[in-house]
Amino acid sequence: MVSAAPARAEMIYAGVATWSAEQTGRYTASGETYDADDLTCAHPSFAFDTLVRVHWRGRSVICRVNDRGPAKSTGVAIDLSRGAARVLGMIDAGRVNVIIEKLGKMLE
Hints:
Blueprint: E1 11-20, E2 40-42, E3 50-56, E4 59-67, E5 78-81, H1 82-88, E6 96-105
Parallel strand pairs: 1-5, 2-4
Antiparallel strand pairs: 1-6, 2-5, 3-4, 3-6
């Protein structure tokens, strides 16, 4: 579960989101074991433990950056865990245009 997030976004931008579940059990770039049902994501440049709020079709989810990716060449801005994608309702869509808010580091 994710701790309380800062109230104000540091940065807001639009991008493409995808999701992944096939890598459950592997190690993420942050060194933790990936669990597809957690509310986590991969981002190419945000620091680990940064919280982001992702919006799609009137829904939003706050997830924590714990991995690197996706590659810039894919045109994808963020790769969500299956758990985060499920909250957004994008499981069947696979690849969607989203609004991403960088909220800052996770609070202890």
